[in-house]
């Protein structure tokens, strides 16, 4: 599988630079097929992994073990749960020993079930259920690591839930098209709207973020890129500078988390959870 | 009172530019006295307004009526509630008719009750209780307007609560010192940390924000300034360019709210409130 070969090559580059943990994009094993209005069940099924690691991803896990560099990988997951096949947009976290540490299933599924007039075709809600594992945080070499996928990054609740679950580092995989048919007037803001909620998420929750994007042309669709590593100060510490295969690295100072908390974010002292009930009660404003 | 004269003069400038609504800073009638370790009860009491409008602020309300330009004004409120005197860091919203529409009491009170070693003296928690009116939204000429004060802007819950309560416009008053004794390494980020959570708040909640700061020297302390008007796209649409008395204006296109919602933020469709319970249950991460 060509994709796995590319991922292994990127992991080798990361390890050679001293990286101890890597993150790959959302749906890194296949094309971003929600851009297509597919109706052939067999064709659709071909995009999902029914096991992890499977025959191909085992090669990536083997590379991680050899390189002593764990990774997070986005893929389309098919699983039998409760007597039926369920499909999730998933990210797996693999340790330095090449073993699966845990998985996250994308909580916020954007787009629609069917094409909607005047908008870019984006059928994630046809191909995936919203995740059913909450916002888990895993131990990776003593560091608490959370995962998020693409649209999740736009919602402040993603970051806050990961923060309250104790995350110090959040790994994000994403796929974002450059074009935006539904609002041409906002098209120039695509990269700003990529980085803004992540920079705020890092700052407001005092976490390090490493976000990995597909970039460049995929099946004729231009993808945004803009992969970055963001400090708990909200600053972009490292930023991709191409739309090709590219490795960026940064040595994350975890002590900066406590420094940032000291300035503004002593959560236990200042937050007022009982005043936020509506956030967990109501999806949108009343009409 | 010199402060009220300055405010009236600024309101006149705003009205002359066609402004229909103005916002003044937090604690606009007095100095930002939480920078002082005060123990004289009479001296402390002198900083609070026990009625609104009072003799001085009535002059400002009269000006609003004459100019047909309402305003939000931050002030220190002293009120007898439940048989005792309570003190809040408050913002009043006044209509074009000069009448009080409603008030907001700052929900997130930063700082401490007593000076803490190694940090800038900031005793807001001595002088004010956390607000007890939630995150109200008021009708101002058919537009739904929410209010927030200073530290509130750093918490994503402030913006989300106002969004869920239906806000289209949020008026913010703030006082932020330039210096940051507790983290010199972050000192260069003061303006970035001012704008970042507001730009994200505007974007993630599709609201217009107008934020008004004290600026320049006040009793020897340099205040940050950076007053701005932010679009629901997260873009800064207007920005103060001085640390003196300065009026900035912008004609806010409320239709942009629906455009921004269409792109990413159909709240009712995509948010997952039942998955966010922890946000309203736990103040900080478990140790």
TrEMBL record, chains A, B:
Q: Which UniProt keywords apply?
A: Hydrolase
| Pfam families xref list | CN_hydrolase
Query: Does the keyword section mention Transmembrane helix?
Result: no
Q: Where is the CN hydrolase domain?
A: 1-256
* Keyword Hydrolase appears in the UniProt entry: yes
Q: Which domain of life is it from?
A: Bacteria
The signal peptide stretch is none
Q: Which InterPro entries match?
A: Aliph_Amidase/BUP, C-N_Hydrolase, C-N_Hydrolase_sf
Q: Which GO terms describe its molecular function?
A: hydrolase activity
Q: What is this protein called?
A: N-carbamoyl-D-amino-acid hydrolase
Q: Which organism is it from?
A: Paraburkholderia caffeinilytica
Q: What is the lineage of its organism?
A: Bacteria, Pseudomonadati, Pseudomonadota, Betaproteobacteria, Burkholderiales
